[in-house]
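Quick note —
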Amino acid sequence: MADNAITLSIVSHGQNTLVNQLLEDVERHCKGHVESIVTQNIDDAAPLARATSTVRNITRKGFGANHNAAFQHCSTPYYCVCNPDIRLESDPFPALLAALRNEDAAVAGPLVRSPLGALEDSARHFPTAARLLRKALSPPAGPEYPTDRGAVVVDWVAGMFMLFRSEAYREIGGFDEAYFLYYEDVDICRRLHAAGRRVIYEPRSVVIHDAQRASRRNAALALQHARSGLRYLLTR
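Predicted structure written out below.
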């Protein structure tokens, strides 16, 4: 097995059309060192194409539970958690793999842009009640970490695209499945830091995120977001 081999985990919530576009990007830009596991969390009439393997859930699972289950099929040195609404214009992995060469590094995340080129806040400081209040009252004007200094150690990187050293993911026990949705990424990064590992933001690696921001339009998802945030603040 190649030292840079990666298992890419994608969870589809009736999003097979998006997943197929992402898998085409992977085939075009990352051929030869990435295999994919697609989890069908709910049924989708659109057929899947190109996936290395698929898992079909009988009952719907949360974000962490789905990726933890997919990890059971991972035999590669690296494991990437990726949202179906990610697109690749080039191979994002070489710079991320380089950032993970040091054994203290556990997970790396890329710079994330919107389809129009806007920079997303995908690397952030750990949330506190005060920071969340400030963000609600006055959204940040720019990124919380520099994007022009190469790889930097950060508090956490967003779960839309996270490349883990598989042994670090295994040692930490993967995502905390008590978070059904939202804050799983914050929590796992916090636990990795507590275990003496590093979380890396590598802006020289770039992905495109066609963000849905569903929790801003769906009251149930907004409530779930708030519950997960409260759980994190109470248990950190």
